[in-house]
């Protein structure tokens, strides 16, 4: 208070303060309009957004708030009648950034990757627009993922009007994710034909870049939910994301086991193999049905965890 009193002593009166519930409360009076206008003081007969910030005070020094202030949803006429105001600690543009990034990396990206990793042998004879179903679904989901990432990436720039200086490693990870995401469709567009002897280079490269991108994206999500401009409830949000990573790992393990068992069965003698192939009811349909169920469960679980985080973004 001393600092403010020294600066504005000519216009402030009836200054008092008290300590209540661990908070310092100040009371002061000042004229609504100021004749001797100073740049730092505003007339109080206009409409303003109200900010509510709280932070630590120690040994007479007031520290910067650790959290984004609570900002009223609309301007309020200061000298008007009292009104219950709604507010948010996160600007709508940053909420959109979080929503789009979580959608891309918790749903479309992970499901699209799983389809390419484990669902190529399924629906082998059906095609959509001349391409295999798994490929069309994979390509569609991944293009959607890259588009969502690109749009979401631009939003903090618009909000900050430049680079986010106080966001730590998070924006750097975001740059890596966007750059690697954009190399994937380029790599896919110039891939050699499936029977080419250099095709394995594309296969390993595409898989490797995709895996690294997904790992960096998950790291970026862990750091992003701790940003002051979109601070999700902690430690709850972190636990939800840990749950998501565990869920994904479980399904990867399940499908790898399924593949291992299926290959073992296919590796039996030619007569047995012929019997398996000629009797689809035994393994083919069952295997396909179980795999469809696994994919549905994966997508449902991902959606549930995503919705939990989106609902917390809505409430900030």
Kindly summarize this structure in a few lines:
The protein has helices at residues 2-8, 92-118, 133-160, 170-189, 199-224, 236-266, 270-278, 284-315; strands at 13-20, 23-29, 47-48, 51-52, 57-58, 61-62, 70-72, 76-77, 87-88, 127-128, 131-132. It has a three-stranded antiparallel beta sheet, with no helix packed on it. It has a two-stranded antiparallel ribbon with strand order 1-2. The protein has a two-stranded antiparallel ribbon with strand order 3-8.
Computed CA radius of gyration, to the nearest angstrom:
28 Å
List unreliable stretches of 5+ residues. 273-283
Helix count equals 8
**What's the CATH topology name of the largest domain?**
Four Helix Bundle (Hemerythrin (Met), subunit A)
Count the strands?
11
Terminus-to-terminus distance: 30 Å
CATH architecture of the largest domain: Up-down Bundle
Sheet having the most strands: 3 strands, antiparallel
Characterization of this structure:
Helix content is 57%, strand content 11%. The chain has 8 helices and 11 strands. The chain has 316 residues and is mainly alpha-helical. The longest helix is centred in the last third of the chain and has 32 residues. The chain folds into 2 domains: 87 residues, no CATH class; 224 residues, Four Helix Bundle (Hemerythrin (Met), subunit A) (Up-down Bundle). The chain is elongated. A hairpin with a 2-residue loop joins strand 5 and strand 6.
